Structures are given as C-alpha cells and as structure tokens.
C-alpha cells in the first residue's frame, strides 16, 4: 500500500482552512501567503500548494470550511423564518472574518457547501412557497447582496476603530460643502457599526418578498 505523507496528514483541508483563517484574523489579509501558512502548519510550501493549487483555491477552501457551519433549517419552518435564519447565519460568518471577505473581493461564492446549505434550500423553499425559479433567484440575490455588502462595509470585530476612522473622516469635511454629513456627527457614528441596520433591512426585504400564500 502507498504510504501517506506525514506532511499531507498534518496539512488536511480543514487544518489549512483553520490556519489560514486564524492568520487572516490575527494579522490581516496582507499576511496570508503559502509560505507563512506552511510555517504555521510546519510543512513545506509545496505541501500546501498541493492541497489548493493557488490563492484562489486557498480562499475557496476557507469559504467552504465556513459554509459547513451554516445551519440546516428544520423542515416545516415557515418561509420568512427560514429565510431570516439562513441569511443572518451567513452575515455572522462574514462579519467574523472580514479579512477573508476583503481577499475574495468580487469573486463569486459558489462552492458546493454554500450551494447545498444556503442557495439550494433557499430557492427550494421559495419555489415551494409559490415563486417561479426566476422570482426565487431574484429574491435570493437581493438578500445575498445585502448581506455581502453590509458585512464588507466595516470591520465589525473592531467597531471602536471603525467609529474612530469615520469620526476623523467626517471631522475633515467642510460643513458648508457637506452640511448633511456634518450636522449631527455623534448621531451618525453609531449607525456605521450598528448590526440592526442589516437586520432591519433584511426583514424589510423578507416582508416585501413574502409569498401571498
């Protein structure tokens, strides 16, 4: 029987994804490289590359690893409740790892785990509730883009830093040129990192899309 490499046994897809996410979360997205990741796993650069080929493959590995944490909504859950459960779970995952979101940029999230745990059941529920496939996909995309945009807008793990950055930017504005932005800075700042902005918008989309039946 062929022997398994000890390095490959250490550098499993799960171990690589865990190490990569910790590296991004602790040191920022710029710190991620195959060599740095290999050093954390105590394997060679080539061993990591064998598992995921390139940076795009590594990021896909990380997103698939996270997607496995998305909940499986019990059968019989109402459409609105199931929809809110799925998208708020995705929002929590994305806001917990803003560096990964920054690295992926505009690349689509189409891994098998995300499709199986979010896209397919959401579309199936919407179609079962009376939507056409096109309507179901339109509703899904609106909620998905809202979730992605709200998660990417600010680093929710460090709201104090985000607030301070925004305060500095607003303080530099000329009130004569930007009267609305500078009129009530203390009132504007909390909204920048308030999760309820997302949750409220999601509920509005759900209510607007709720099937009549």
Structure explained in plain terms:
The chain is mostly helical and 213 residues long. The protein is 71% helix and 0% strand. α2 crosses α5 (55-67). It is flat and about 60 Å long.
Question: Can you give me a brief rundown of this structure?
Answer:
The chain is an all-alpha fold and 213 residues long. The chain has helices spanning 6-10, 13-27, 34-41, 45-52, 55-67, 79-96, 98-104, 112-128, 133-152, 159-171, 179-182, 185-192, 195-209.
Considering DSSP H and I runs of 4 or more, what fraction of the residues is helical?
over 70%
| Radius of gyration based on Cα positions | 21 Å
Quaternary organisation: single chain
The helix count comes to 13
Provide key terms for this protein.
mainly alpha; single chain; 213 residues
Question: Secondary structure elements and their pairing?
Answer:
Blueprint: H1 6-10, H2 13-27, H3 34-41, H4 45-52, H5 55-67, H6 79-96, H7 98-104, H8 112-128, H9 133-152, H10 159-171, H11 179-182, H12 185-192, H13 195-209
Helix pairs in contact: 2-5, 3-4, 5-8, 6-8, 6-9, 6-13, 8-9, 9-13, 10-12
């Amino acid at each position: 029987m062929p022997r398994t490499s000890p390095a490959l046994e250490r550098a499993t897809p799960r171990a690589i994804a865990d190490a990569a996410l910790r590296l991004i979360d602790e040191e920022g997205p710029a710190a991620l490289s195959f060599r740095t990741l290999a050093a954390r796993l105590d394997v060679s650069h080539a061993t990591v590359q064998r598992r995921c080929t390139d940076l795009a493959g590594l990021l896909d590995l990380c997103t698939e690893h996270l997607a496995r944490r998305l909940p499986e909504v019990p059968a019989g859950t109402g459409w609105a409740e199931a929809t809110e459960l799925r998208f708020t779970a995705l929002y929590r995952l994305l806001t917990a790892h803003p560096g990964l979101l920054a690295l992926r940029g505009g690349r689509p999230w189409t891994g098998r785990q995300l499709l199986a745990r979010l896209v397919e059941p959401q579309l199936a529920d919407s179609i079962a509730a009376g939507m056409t496939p096109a309507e179901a996909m339109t509703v899904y995309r609106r909620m998905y883009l809202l979730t992605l945009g709200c998660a990417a807008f600010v680093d929710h793990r460090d709201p104090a830093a985000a607030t301070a950055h925004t305060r500095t930017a607003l303080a530099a504005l000329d009130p004569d040129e930007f009267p609305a932005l500078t009129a009530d800075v203390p009132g504007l700042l909390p909204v920048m990192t308030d999760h309820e902005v997302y949750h409220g918008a999601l509920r509005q989309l759900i209510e607007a899309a709720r099937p009549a039946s």
